[in-house]
Amino acid sequence: MGLFSAPAYAYITARVRARKKKLIPRDTYPKLLNMELPEIIRFIEETEYKKDVDELSARFRGIDLLEHALNRNLGASYRKLIEISRGQVNYLVTEYMRRWDIWNIKTILRGKYYGASEEEILDYVVSAGELHYPDLESMARRESVEAVIDSLQNRPCYQVLKDYEGGMLNRIEDELDKFYYARLLDAIGDSPGEKLFLKFLQTEIDIKNLKTLFRLKRAGVDREGVQNAIIPGGLELRGPDLIRLLGLSFSELIHSLDGYSYWSSIADIVSEEGTSLTDVETKLDAYLMNFASRISHYYPLSILPVLDYILHKKIEVDNLRIISRGKELKLSNDVIQNNLVM
Amino acid sequence: MAIKDTIKPTRSELIGLKKKIKLSESGHKLLKMKRDGLIIEMFEILEKAKDVRSELERDYAVAQEKLNIAKTIEGTVAVNSTAFSLMDTPKIELESKNVMGVVVPKIESTSVKKSITERGYGIIGTSSRIDEAADAYESLVEKIILAAEIETTMKRLLDDIEKTKRRVNALEFKLIPELYEALAFITLRLEEMEREEIFRLKKIKLKE
Asked: Which of A82, A282, B26, B205 is spaced 20 to 30 A from A205 at the CA atom?
């Protein structure tokens, strides 16, 4: 692990730079925000998403069609990265993209638990990781949650799934997410670029843990319940510090975050009464994106430009969905704008 | 058909009629009291129903907004996938209670409001937008159940007020006046018959 291969990075970084140039420029989003919904749809249909929109137009309508087309394009773009990368880059990208495999496995397990049809389940999967659509189809065809788990015996996540004892899936879902991060952290080598990638990932873990702490503490969940949903391996929230935070109440928690670098981004919107955590989550996500943007150009021949493209592609898909769905659901421009990453 | 044609002008009929009048008048009084009581009850429920209805509309708007935000930011794919996490449906128990003789429903619900750990989805892979949408919809369902109980009670009370009002009016404007008319008729007839009897006795006495 951790092999640094300059030629492999040169090829993949050149490819992702070319792909990044095709992304919608940031200054387009404010313009889209001022457009009417039909104009936005027309705009999206004139971009690289046209093919996906056309191919899905028989199954979906309206903004649902757009959302599925965006997800499909995102999946295809990410899978392309796995296909064109070699060596350690391929290993890292594949491990990073396993978050989509985890997402799809969770969706299929939930669907089976609920008793949804195969078609319904497959509408909500995004084939962007190692598991291809036919794999997901075959999983969705299985009879039960247990049968789906059995079908994953040859996959790494089986070591987590085999502990499922029936009933609700929340515990196993959290364990899958923790397993994903643990594997990814193990996969990262010690080249300078990968060290920064590790720092990004640890920051992402911190952000996720911070969100979990906010959500569960506000809901009054006990220490053990919170601990079960905490991902090990964060950057600042770790060791005795994290153990201390687990035992605090919501109001004590927000008074204890002063020393952490994340606090400055949320200090002005967090309050004890804190009616909504959605703004807090939006600010924390923006913090992570800013961090990723800052490090993305440090080492041009490393995993960082690839990560930069992965994140920018996701931002593009999210922004287009937020604008079009927000317009359809008549959300105010302020709400839409506050949730865009620009 | 006139009342004179249907009743017999006898003393026993008169006694029976007087009993009927007494019963009708006390029934009328009781029904009037019931009607007034139901109207007072109805106004109290009406205030509650108005409050619940406006709270319901407000909660619906909030829940819809929270869901719209979750659908917009997380995507409908994420929201719908998360929605599969819960198989448990709210349970409703229907009982009844008696308000001044009117049987109204009492709805008890369980498994509506859930804690974040009982909703079935993992915490790490979801967001507070999903929590807030779920929370808002749980509150909305609770409010719908409460509104159903209050509005059904109101409807039942209204039906019963209408029924009681018809009975009071029937007693007041139809039955009791008719009974009095019959009473007057029998009294007059009996007096007439008494006068005839005296006249007849006088005639017999004169012949002797």
From this structure: A82
**What whole-number distance in Å separates Cα of residue A302 and Cα of residue A8?**
9
Q: Does A113 sit within 8 Å of B84, measured CB to CB?
A: yes
CB within 8 Å: A103 and B116: no
> Which residues of chain B have a CB within 8 Å of the CB of A281?
127-129
**Residue B161 lies inside a defined structural domain of this protein:** yes
- E strand or H helix at B104: strand B102-110
Q: According to the 3-state scheme, what is the secondary structure of A92-130?
A: HHHHHHHHHHHHHHHHHHHHHHHCCCHHHHHHCCCCCCC
Tens-place pLDDT, residues A129-140? 989 999 999 999
- Which H helix or E strand runs over B92? strand B91-99
Name which of B76, B79, B81, B119 to mutate to probe chain A: the one with the most chain A Cβ atoms within 10 A of its Cβ.
B81
In sequence order, the 6+-apart residues with CB closer than 8 A to the CB of B152 are B104, B105
Q: In Å, how far from its chain's centre is CA B164?
A: 10
Q: What domains sit in chain A, N to C, each tagged with a CATH number?
A: 8-189+315-342 (no CATH), 192-301 (1.20.1690)
Considering CB atoms only, which of A67, A170, A280 is closest to B75? A67
**Residue matched to tokens 């229907």:** B94
Single-letter code of the amino acid located at B202:
K
Contact B131 A102 (CB under 8 A): no
Domain carrying residue B142: 9-207
CATH number at residue B84: 1.10.287.3240
Nearest to B85 among A103, A110, A276 (CB): A110
Question: B77 in a domain, yes or no?
Answer: yes
Contacts of A210 in chain B (CB under 8 A): none
Residue B2, pLDDT score: 63
Per-residue pLDDT band for B112 (boundaries 50, 70, 90) equals confident
Cβ pair B127:A67 closer than 8 A: no
Assess if residue B98 is contained within a domain.
yes
Indicate yes or no: CB of A113 within 8 angstroms of CB of B87: yes
Q: How many domains does chain B have?
A: 1
Q: Residue A2: is its pLDDT beyond 50?
A: no
Q: How far is B27 from chain A (nearest CA, A)?
A: 58
Angle between helices A6-21 and A303-328 in degrees, nearest 10: 20
**pLDDT tens for each residue of B50-107:** 999 999 999 999 999 999 999 999 999 999 999 999 887 888 888 888 888 889 888 8
Contact B124 A177 (CB under 8 A): yes
Q: What is the pLDDT of residue A300?
A: 84
Taking the Cβ of residue A103 and every Cβ of chain B, the question of whether any pair is shorter than 8 Å is answered with yes
The answer to whether residue B201 is domain-embedded is: yes
Which pLDDT does position A293 carry in this prediction? 85
Largest CA distance in chain A: 55
Complex-level ipTM: 0.91
